Automatic annotation (TrEMBL):
This is Sensor histidine kinase. The keyword Transmembrane applies. The chain crosses the membrane at residues 39-59, 65-84, 96-114, 140-157. It comes from Pedobacter albus. Keywords: Kinase, Membrane, Transferase, Transmembrane, Transmembrane helix.
Length: 363
């Protein structure tokens, strides 16, 4: 028989406790998300009730709170049952048509019974005496048709928003996979060793070439670090400066760019996602025209009192493909939503010949 040591038993128990704790955290998070979704429905429900009762009051000039709430206590659950249970079957097409018809029929019968029970209690409540039982289906039928159409429209709008969100998330994930793939293909140690060798060989021949190689090594070393690792704003600003300096050496006097970097010592210590500023500066060189002396490109980065601001302005390059620009902006928006929920503002102004961007973060 296999025996276990006290250490092995301890590790097994610790693993079980960790798994239970993680499962509890996940279930708690899911419950919080479900609660938020339910609360999101409340303003819409109140708006519809207000609209319907306002329309009825304009004709009858009467409003009975108790009787109105009794009917809505039936209508609201039926609306959500149709939207979340019957409408998905209807949207699936002819394969589930029979199941949808059967489900709607059962729901209509239950709704008809509940409506007639509600009619009896409302008549008894208003008259204050025992009333006879009457059964009517015409009003309930058209109310059920109204609820079915409204619930189906709600389901289709919710489904459209979900598909649009999934498509945007898929583009962002594809961009992340492409970036991860490029990082895995590049062999950092080999490249950095090669660049160091080139730097040592050309240092005596050309100081400019040696500086360019050194800047290129620093830019690449910063770019291939793990994307999930946060960096200080000081490091990110240094990367922006290195990237611009490398392009100034490469383009010389052709480059027309005005850059202003200002950040307090306190702000420089805050952490930010890597490349969050550098990628936007890189987009200027990739998609912009930075060779016009009259209209030079502008970069202004400021940070004061935990507020980081990036402003860029540039002319658009002529006949330059922008196949990755929309995906890159989607990736940036996703990055901001994950790291700075409710604490960021991204404004993009695109005209025929110019591109302007303003990003503000609360660190």
């Amino acid at each position: 028989m296999m025996s276990y040591t006290d250490r092995e038993i301890f590790y097994v128990k610790r693993s079980i406790v960790y798994a239970k704790t993680r499962a509890t955290k996940i279930s708690t998070k899911q419950m919080e998300q479900r609660t938020k979704r339910k609360l999101y429905h409340l303003p819409g429900v109140l708006l519809v009730i207000g609209y319907e009762q306002g329309f009825v009051f304009s004709y009858t000039h009467e409003f009975h709170f108790i009787s109105t709430m009794i009917y809505y206590l039936i209508d609201i659950p039926v609306f959500f049952l149709i939207s979340y249970k019957a409408a998905p079957y209807l949207h699936a097409g002819h394969r589930r048509l029979l199941r949808t018809v059967c489900l709607l029929t059962v729901m209509f019968i239950c709704y008809l019974l509940l409506q007639n029970i509600a009619d009896y209690f409302v008549l008894w409540y208003r008259s204050g005496q025992t009333v006879g039982w009457t059964f009517s289906g015409k009003k309930s039928f058209w109310r059920f048709v109204y609820l079915t159409g409204f619930a189906t429209a709600y389901f289709l709008s919710r489904e459209g928003l979900r598909r649009a969100r999934e498509g945007r998330d898929l583009e962002v994930r594809n961009l992340e996979l492409e970036t991860a793939y490029l990082r895995s293909v590049i062999k950092p140690h080999f490249i950095f060793n090669t660049l160091n060798f080139i730097h040592s060989e050309v240092a005596e021949l050309s100081a400019t070439a040696a500086t360019s190689v050194s800047l290129l090594a620093e830019v690449m070393q910063y770019a291939v670090q793990p994307s999930g690792k946060a960096v200080s704003l000081e490091e990110e600003l240094a990367q922006v400066n290195h990237y611009v300096m490398l392009n100034r050496i490469r383009l010389g006097e052709q480059l027309q760019l005005q850059m202003d970097l200002r950040a307090t010592p306190e702000c420089r210590q805050y952490n930010v996602p890597p490349l969050i500023l550098t990628n936007l500066v890189e987009n200027m060189f990739k998609h912009g025209n930075l060779y016009d002396r009259i209209h030079p490109g502008r970069i202004r980065i400021t940070c004061e009192k935990r507020t980081l601001s990036l402003f860029t302005w540039n002319l658009k390059a002529r006949a330059r493909p922008l196949e990755s620009a929309s995906v890159g902006m989607a990736y940036l928006q996703n990055l901001l939503d994950r790291n700075y929920p409710g604490k960021h503002c991204l404004q993009v102004k695109t005209e025929e010949n110019t591109f302007e961007l303003l990003m503000t973060l609360q660190l």
